[in-house]
Structures are given as structure tokens and as C-alpha cells.
Amino acid sequence: GAGVSQSPSNKVTEKGKDVELRCDPISGHTALYWYRQSLGQGLEFLIYFQGNSAPDKSGLPSDRFSAERTGGSVSTLTIQRTQQEDSAVYLCASSETSGGSNEQFFGPGTRLTVL
Amino acid sequence: AQSVTQPDIHITVSEGASLELRCNYSYGATPYLFWYVQSPGQGLQLLLKYFSGDTLVQGIKGFEAEFKRSQSSFNLRKPSVHWSDAAEYFCAVKKRGSAGNMLTFGGGTRLMVKP
Q: Which residues have C-beta within 8 Å of that of residue A105, sequence separation ≥ 6?
């Protein structure tokens, strides 16, 4: 079946603009994760959703970052007033449940460039 | 603090040679352990994982990894490298016992394969 998809694949924006990144998880997966991959910081966790529970936002770097997950499926990561340090690849992953042994399946990522 | 260390940032091997990528973790208890591979422009693909039991685990593409509790290590190996193995490899851990815990990644090892 289809894997995790993300859109857009590339996004170039100007400093100060808002951006929205989309993730479509694998159908039936109840857990969804956002990670960020940057040259300086490597791969970092941002936020996690499990079903209808309140998300774990402990990895969000600032209040400019937010995410939502509608209907327990599609998720949108929003970055407000983008800064150059937000330039990175944003990866989304999903898993069947949030149980510890469940494999996370990753999407191809969205490369964000802030000019 | 919990951490994952991949000591080698870059490794170059000749095609057909053996490969070992190192991974050490620092956790209070043995976590779940994973190796992922990322080819250029691609998302992360799971190579193998260790949860319990046999400390030598087999993965896809001819890779294996050995968990050594005494050394807090989970090194990835392949007996004979192919040119298509050139990619970046990430070791990751996930805390046991709690739902929804995110993956914590090492800094990655970029593998180059000489013809």
C-alpha cells in the first residue's frame, strides 16, 4: 500500500512568512510524528500525535511552531514568521500505534529553505 | 542525558569489503534499538531493530547488527558492501515502557563506496 506522503517536497520562502507543511500518514496508523533534519542539529523530534489524545509538543523549538492533526489522519505543521534557522528537511513518520516496538515509517520529507 | 553516538561521521570502503558502523547509546535501561538508512533525497528506511532475545539481529539488504549490553553498543555490519549501499546511516533508540516515545537519533554516518 501507499507509504507516508508529504507535500510540498520543496518549499522556498522569505524570512518572516508563514509556511504550512502537510503529512499524509499510512492509512490506519494512529501515531504520527514530526522530526526535523538540519545540518547543525541532526535529526530532532518535534511533535507526536496519538489518536485523539493531546499531542506531545515537547520537541517544538519555539512558539512559532505548531501542528494539528485533523480527523486522526492528515497533519499540518505550521511555522509562523519563518527564520533562516528554520531551514531544514521536515520529516513525518507514522506507526500503527504508539507502542514502543512499533516501527515508524518515514515520508520523503519537505525541504524548507528560508531566504 | 540520554544520547546516541555514532563516532564516525564519514566512512569510505571499497566495494566488496566488509563494513562496520558503530553506535553507542547512553540510557538508564536498554532501549529499543534501530538502524535506518537514508539515500539522497529519500526518507528514512528501517534496516533492522532490536527489542529483546538474540543479540544478533538480521535486517534487510544483507545487514546485521549486534547488541552488546556491556558496551552499550549496537554496531551495524555487512560482510560485503555494494555500491548501492552508499548512503547515510542512522542509529536510533526508543525508550521502553512508555507509549508514544519518539526516536532519538545519532548524528549519522555517511558511507561512501569506492569502485
A: A3, A4, A26, A29, A93, A94, A95, B46
DSSP strand pairing (A110-114 vs A88-95)? antiparallel
In this predicted structure, the answer to whether residue A33 has a pLDDT above a threshold of 70 is yes
Q: Per-residue pLDDT tens for A71-113?
A: 879 999 999 999 999 999 999 999 987 666 788 999 999 999 9
Size of interface A-B (CB pairs under 8 A): 59
Closest-CA residue of B relative to A45 is: B102
Cβ-nearest to A91 among B44, B92, B95:
B44
Give the count of beta carbons closer than 10 Å to the beta carbon of residue B43: 20
Is there a contact between A45 and B104 if contact means CB atoms under 8 Å apart?
yes
pLDDT score of B65 more than 80: yes
Closest residue by Cα to residue A95 from A4, A35, A30, A27: A30
Q: Which DSSP string corresponds to B66-87?
A: EEEGGGTEEEEEESS--GGG-E
Cα separation of B28 and B100, whole Å? 18
List chain B residues with CB under 8 Å of A105. 46
Contact A108 B95 (CB under 8 A): no
Q: Is B77 on the interface with A (CB under 8 A)?
A: no
